[in-house]
Amino acid sequence: MTNPTFELTDELRQVVTQFFQRIPFNQMLGIEIGELSNEQVVMHLPMKPELIGNFVHGILHGGVISSLLDVCGGAMALIGAFANHQHLPTPERMARLSKLGTIDLRIDYLRPGRGQRFTATALPLRAGNKVAVVRMELHSDDGTLVAVGTGTYLCG
């Protein structure tokens, strides 16, 4: 839960988008940013042959699933950190935000990842000054819930 007086401006959305788009691994996977807000982050992943884990059935690789959920959760944690550190001078705020990282990640694989496009969502459970906890879900293009996750992130 982010600070209610914090507004995620278009400029901050652009900063978060550019941050995640500059990560080569995110580019290689093909992650697309859908929605960025204080309440939710949505990302999409088009299926491509390189992401298949079970070649007999054409199922999305479990490592790709966990990576996408982690990236989505990390974006939500970053937005929460922006809100919690908005009172700090820019150099100190940026120094804290540069420490963003995953502390713990739990993924529950519920169903095979079948489809042509997957959607990951992340919702904040707790956004503290140092640690954020985020809940994530992954759905296939037909709405099937493929996996859920909980991530704990260092936020400064």
How are the elements arranged and paired?
Blueprint: H1 10-21, H2 24-29, E1 32-36, E2 41-46, E3 52-54, E4 59-60, H3 62-84, H4 90-97, E5 101-109, E6 117-127, E7 131-139, E8 145-154
Antiparallel strand pairs: 1-2, 2-6, 3-4, 5-8, 6-7, 7-8
Unreliable spans are none
User: Hey, roughly how much beta strand do the residues contain?
Assistant: 35-45%
Number of domains: 1
Instruction: Assign the CATH class.
Output: Alpha Beta
Radius of gyration: 15 Å
CATH architecture: Roll
Count of alpha and pi helical runs: 4
Helix coverage percent: 25-40%
Give the strand tally.
8
- SSE order, one letter for each helix or strand: HHEEEEHHEEEE
Major sheet: arrangement of strands: 1-2-6-7-8-5
CATH superfamily: Hotdog Thioesterase
Principal-axes geometry comes out as elongated
Beginning-to-end CA distance, first to last residue: 16 Å
- Overall mean pLDDT stands at 91
CATH topology: the name is Thiol Ester Dehydrase, Chain A
Major beta sheet summary: 6 strands, antiparallel
Derived from helix and strand composition plus strand pairing, the structural class reads alpha+beta
